[in-house]
Fold this sequence. Notes:
The chain has helices spanning 3-29, 38-53, 58-82, 90-108, 126-151, 161-181. It is mainly alpha-helical and 183 residues long.
Amino acid sequence: MTHNKKKISNGLKKIIIFVLSIFGLNLLITKQVLAVCPICTIAVASGVGFSRWIGIDDTITGLWIGGLIISMISWTESWLDKKNIHFKGRIFADILVYFLLVIIPLYYSKIIGNPLNTFCACGLDKLLFGIIVGSIGFWFGTSWYFYLKEKNNGHAYFPFQKVVMPISPIIILSIIFYFLTKQ
């Protein structure tokens, strides 16, 4: 086996271990159904730490951070609805607060903004790019789940659909980004 094939094989093993860990965690602690399930949030949070620990590229880590942000926004919206707290622009305030809570500390700790950590020649930061794409991917998966559930008279089509659909776009994007960023 050549050095490059071995390197690719090791990278794929890391991604497979990463994905299996997330699904394993999801299956172990699933109990209750909420707006966006708590399992998704736990899976995203564990995915961020684990991906950095095993040396996965920052674009992939950013995907999971973006998913975590969207999950937390959904949880906050659900919690505010339950507490009957409503005000104009609430969703925009939630979005702004959560993104700033994540991005500002990353920027001031020089994790975002490092000129040597860019995705392309345009100078776009890898982690920030991943956060943006991951946010869109998680939001798309969640929205698609709710659309399908509504079409099926309020029922999921298969067990754990609420977990699988929001996380699937992030897993697919992680694999794509792995091949785009491998060296």
